[in-house]
Design a protein that fits this description.
Shape: globular
Oligomer: single chain
Order of helices and strands: HEEHHEHEEH
Radius of gyration: 15 Å
Number of strands: 5
Number of helices: 5
Structural class: alpha/beta
Largest sheet: 5 strands, mixed
């Protein structure tokens, strides 16, 4: 059973994950792998992104990378202290590296990525004690919704 504070935090995670999921649906509608991300600072979204790899012909145009760049521009800072990244799919090694370099405090993600996930599944770059920054990881928020959208996307592509 959750106490009042935990319920409030869980509700907050669902609220912001819903925003990331809406962006994943935008990616899906654009023919991109349906992943969406938002960066939150002091209860306000300061960065948004969705996968745009195909549209931009850029392998680095992942939802997380775009959201992080947007958030840094908003704060006018290369570091995202006191920020939380919400993303529908566990970040890959490239995105996990950007999370560490930007010093994001927390990552909340939906679906795990057993093949390339770097926040606890295949690797754990984001919380690796060898680096000068470790990020708190929370997973499983809207996991089934994210998995469903990803499976639908890939089944249509086959």
């Amino acid at each position: 059973m959750f106490n009042g504070n935990q319920k409030g935090e869980l509700n907050l995670h669902f609220h912001f994950m819903r925003q990331a999921f809406n962006l994943a649906e935008t990616a899906y509608d654009s023919g991109e792998v349906p992943v969406g991300a938002v960066v939150v600072h002091k209860g306000r979204i300061i960065g948004r992104g969705y996968n745009q790899v195909e549209m931009l012909k850029d392998p680095t145009a992942h939802a997380e990378m775009i959201a992080i760049s947007s958030a840094c521009a908003t704060l006018e800072n290369k570091y995202l202290h006191d920020c939380t990244l919400y993303v529908t799919l566990e970040p890959c090694p490239m995105c996990a590296g950007a999370i560490v370099w930007s010093k994001i405090e927390r990552v909340v993600f939906g679906a795990m990525d057993e093949k390339a996930g770097s926040c606890g599944s295949a690797l754990n770059i984001a919380s690796n004690k060898m680096f000068n920054h470790q990020t708190e990881i929370i997973h499983g928020i809207m996991e089934h919704d994210a998995e469903f959208l990803l499976k639908k996307f890939f089944s249509e592509k086959r």
